[in-house]
Design a protein that fits this description.
The complex is a heterodimer of chains A (about 500) and B (about 325).
Chain A: H1 2-7, E1 30-31, E2 34-35, H2 40-47, H3 51-67, E3 71-73, E4 82-84, E5 87-94, H4 96-120, H5 125-128, H6 134-138, E6 160-167, E7 173-179, H7 186-199, H8 201-207, H9 215-225, E8 236-239, H10 248-258, E9 261-263, E10 268-271, E11 274-279, E12 282-285, E13 288-291, H11 314-319, E14 324-326, H12 343-351, E15 358-359, E16 362-364, H13 368-376, E17 381-385, E18 394-396, H14 402-414, E19 419-423, E20 429-434, E21 439-448, E22 450-454, E23 457-460, E24 465-469, E25 483-490
Parallel strand pairs in A: 5-25, 7-15, 8-9, 8-13, 13-14
Antiparallel strand pairs in A: 1-2, 3-4, 6-7, 6-22, 10-11, 11-12, 16-19, 17-18, 17-19, 20-21, 21-24, 22-23, 24-25
Chain B: H1 3-35, H2 40-51, H3 54-61, H4 74-82, H5 91-104, H6 111-124, H7 127-135, H8 137-158, H9 163-192, H10 199-212, H11 216-223, H12 229-238, H13 246-260, H14 271-287, H15 295-318
Helix pairs in contact in B: 1-2, 1-4, 1-5, 1-8, 1-9, 1-10, 2-9, 5-6, 6-8, 7-8, 9-10, 9-12, 9-13, 9-15, 13-14, 14-15
The chains are: A alpha+beta (about 500), B mainly alpha (about 325).
Chain lengths: ~500, ~325
């Protein structure tokens, strides 16, 4: 590949010749037909690739992912079929200056969200001060009254978070939602990078990109920092629901790259409010659990009694301060879609700072004025159920039928607390390899950066998961809805 | 280590070994059928008996009739032993089993070993494998065997030699003891009861058995070219340097278990399994000095298979988290 690259003599435009930029949309790489200044060098190198080279590299990359088992399980398939997460080799680039702002904004946001959770599970000052209506919080599905008064070991609740960001037509970054429970996808960030480096060594070298492969080390440090046992003597494990879970690859990946053991619920038991692992040398005390099981399934004594994925007594051990859980249970109240509109208020309330990151203007259907507006403008809005994720329970107004709108109208009127609405934002686009047509076309993307919070505060991985809506005209980037991913290159220095 | 993980390691080892053994046995039987001048049922039925699938095959494909043509239908037996998803010991099921266990302990395996078993799994599930099976049967078995051997070799050359590998190897060795014992038992019985005692046929049969255990060259070196029923039986039971003999496998399994659960650490679980394996090791070693003819062979092999079965049960309860 290197050889043919240096031999190709085509015009610079090459790969991006007649790149059909989308009207009314911010493109991540091009301003009209010209590469953005920060990316000129990378764009020129990529442009030199011939479509057949890219097609070959793309096919090689997919085979490598399949052989390495970098796959997710397809639910509802009795043969346990696994698929690779669709991947586009063309990277998504982020300028150094842009990322510095994101980094500060995300750190600020995580500090505020952490303070909010501490407050909600303690004095609830923010409600008393009238900043957020009590009903918004106490009515959230993720609010766990049982946890009030419990302090998590190490004082951290949101050890691992993924914040979904989009870019509007002006190029302004906006937070779309916070994922503060068990965000997934970071293994693809690391794996995608390995593939990019193998397939585009020259371009990658020239681009001067921040590394991402130290994420597992930082995660292990974060977990150790909250251990109830000081020093290096604590025993930390990763808890997975098991190989049938769609994110099992990631659970296994993280355990492997951190050198921790991957456990399933039946491996653990509680005795005297302490938690133990069943080993070949008898019971072993566990101090920290990075749990990738939803909290509803964590402990059948407290949450869902029918859970076979849970460990009876786990929450007793947690309440007694004998085990740290990452992330802490109860975080769902802070990433509830109806609580999201109040995050800027939280930043001002807890930190007395001006929010650095913009959000998307959100209409809360519980409020009479907002609901009235939403119902009058259903055809223009995106309506979301506050307790669903993965692109489910949504109405995409501009693409909806009259029946779908009527259905959502009925649902909103019946349960206004469950719905919020936003105007549809023209998500930014990114050059994407379209295998069927063997050419590069714009597709819409979002960005999920990962933030680790230890005792010392939040740290942002300089990179993230770029999800791309591979279907032409689509705005939905979720992998469950035909989305794929790209490697995200955060530049080390300004152009 | 976590008991469930140890269990996956143990079964991963067993399945990989079982897949290798199946592909080797089928290839050897196919070769034997070509020139042994035996009734085909005498070639193919032992394959079913050794794997413990005689009854299921009889019910499903031979109408429970001992004289049914299916018993000698090499294609049918091979299809059953390679592809049948309801046959728990078919090659396909063993590869799927190995890969499923490997995926459950993905973080324990080295990347290379994982890739090897994953590629074997992707291959056997592919159309290319089906086509190779139909067009180049021998190449198909060769490929399957290479995949398992590569996996086993990579385990030893790329993983930490500590507890997880010990459990995998314990699984490999105990699976191998039973395979060798059952193959020897079935063939010994069949060959010594051949209607006409025919030296050339018998030699061909013993060599085929040895090939099925990757042992023909090793045996010929030890026996300086003399092929005899007693000699082969003695070799497969007692040869201390042959990695598939019963004595070698039992002794190595005991060594592995001593590393997992040191004999002096009485406070740790695993004591009963260790003692059972020690007793079997001593017993097998003592047999090296006794004559090995006729019914003695069958009795010895039955004892070994029963004891290994017992030991696997105890291991499950003591160390692998079985209820």
């Amino acid at each position: 590949m290197m050889q043919s690259q240096s031999q190709s003599q085509g015009p610079l435009a090459g790969l991006f010749d007649s790149y059909p930029a989308l009207p009314g949309t911010y493109d991540e790489m091009f301003d009209a037909q010209t590469p953005r200044a920060a990316f000129a060098r990378v764009a020129a190198l990529l442009a030199k690739m011939r479509p057949e080279e890219l097609a070959r590299a793309q096919a090689l990359a997919e085979t490598a992912l399949l052989h390495q088992g970098v796959t997710f399980s397809v639910y509802g398939d009795s043969r346990g079929t696994e698929k690779i997460f669709p991947f586009c080799l063309l990277p998504r680039l982020i300028a150094a200056d842009d990322f510095r702002v994101l980094e500060r904004g995300l750190q600020q946001r995580l500090r505020a969200l952490g303070a909010f959770l501490d407050d909600i599970y303690d004095e609830q000052k923010i409600i008393a001060a009238g900043v957020v209506p009590a009903e918004m919080i106490l009515g959230a599905a993720g609010y766990r009254p049982l946890l009030r008064g419990i302090k998590p070991p190490g004082g951290v609740r949101i050890h691992i978070s993924g914040v979904d960001l989009i870019r509007d037509p002006k190029g302004t970054w906006r937070v779309l939602e916070d994922n503060l429970r068990t965000p997934s996808g970071v293994s693809y960030v690391v794996e995608n990078r390995l593939i990019s480096k193998r397939m585009f060594p020259r371009v990658f070298d020239a681009a001067r990109v921040h590394r991402v492969d130290h994420y597992p080390t930082r995660l292990a440090e974060t977990l150790r920092s909250v251990s109830p046992v000081p020093g290096d003597d604590g025993y930390a494990v990763v808890l997975t629901p098991g190989p049938y879970n769609s994110a099992y690859f990631e659970h296994s990946f993280l355990a492997r790259t951190m050198g921790l053991e991957l456990v399933q619920a039946p491996d653990l038991f509680v005795d005297g409010d302490k938690i133990y692992c069943r080993t070949t040398r008898g019971p072993k005390r566990v101090d920290v659990i990075y749990r990738r099981t939803d909290e509803a399934f964590l402990d059948p004594e407290v949450f869902r009694p029918d859970s076979v994925l849970g460990v009876p007594g786990l929450m007793r051990a947690y309440a007694a301060g004998n085990v740290a859980l990452a992330n802490a249970p109860g975080n769902g109240v802070a990433d509830d879609k109806a609580v999201y509109p109040f995050v800027p208020d939280m930043i001002e309330f807890y930190l007395s700072e001006v929010p650095i990151l913009e959000q998307v203007q959100t209409y809360v259907c519980l409020f009479d004025d907002d609901r009235k507006y939403v119902l009058e403008h259903l055809g223009e809005m995106v309506v979301k159920a506050v307790d669903e994720a993965g692109g489910y329970g949504m109405l995409m107004g501009p693409q909806s039928t009259a029946e779908e709108r009527d259905e959502f109208r009925r649902r909103i009127e019946a349960e206004p607390r469950r719905y919020i609405a936003q105007h549809r934002i023209e998500l930014s686009s990114c050059p994407t390899w379209i295998a069927d047509r063997a050419c590069v076309e714009p597709r819409r993307v979002d960005l999920r950066p990962y933030i680790l919070t230890s005792r010392e505060g939040p740290w942002v991985l300089p990179g993230g998961l770029t999800r791309v809506a591979l279907q032409q005209g689509s705005y939905v980037v979720n992998s469950s809805q035909g989305g794929g991913s790209k490697d995200t290159w955060v530049m080390r220095e300004s152009a | 280590m976590i008991s469930r993980v140890a269990d996956h390691c143990f079964w991963f080892g067993r399945y990989v070994e079982r897949a290798e053994s199946m592909s080797r046995t089928l290839a050897a039987s196919m070769s034997l059928a070509l020139d042994a001048e035996l009734p085909p049922a005498n070639v193919w039925r032992p394959v079913l008996v050794v794997s413990g699938e005689e009854e299921r095959f009889g019910e499903r494909l031979a109408a429970n009739d001992d004289d049914h043509a299916a018993w000698g239908d090499g294609e049918l037996v091979q299809r059953f032993m390679v592809w049948d998803e309801d046959n728990g010991v078919s090659l396909l099921r063993s590869v799927l089993g190995a890969r499923w266990n490997a995926r459950s302990i993905r973080e324990v395996l080295s990347l290379e070993a994982w890739e090897a078993v994953n590629e074997l799994h992707l291959w056997i599930s592919s159309d290319a494998a089906q086509a190779m099976y139909l067009q180049h049967r021998d190449a198909f078995y060769h490929h399957a065997r290479r995949g398992t051997q590569l996996t086993l070799g990579l385990l030893r050359s790329t993983m930490l030699h500590d507890e997880p590998l010990d459990f995998m190897w314990l699984g490999v060795l105990l699976e191998r003891v039973s395979q060798t014992a059952r193959m020897l038992d079935v063939h010994h019985h069949a060959f010594t009861h051949l209607a006409r005692h025919h030296e050339i046929v018998e030699t061909a049969l013993w060599l085929s058995l040895l090939r099925g255990l990757s042992g023909s060259e090793a045996y010929l070196k030890r026996a300086a070219g003399r092929v005899s029923s007693d000699g082969v039986a003695r070799f497969l039971v007692s040869e201390p340097a042959f990695p598939r003999s019963i004595a070698y496998c039992v002794h190595s399994a005991y060594d592995r278990l001593c590393d997992i659960r040191p004999p002096e650490r009485h406070e740790l679980p695993g004591g009963v399994s260790l003692e059972q394996l020690r007793v079997l090791d001593t017993w097998v070693a003592a047999r090296a000095k006794e004559p090995l003819t006729g019914a003695a062979v069958h009795d010895l092999l039955t004892h070994v298979v029963d004891e290994v079965h017992e030991i696997c049960g105890t291991l499950g309860k003591e160390l692998l988290g079985a209820a």
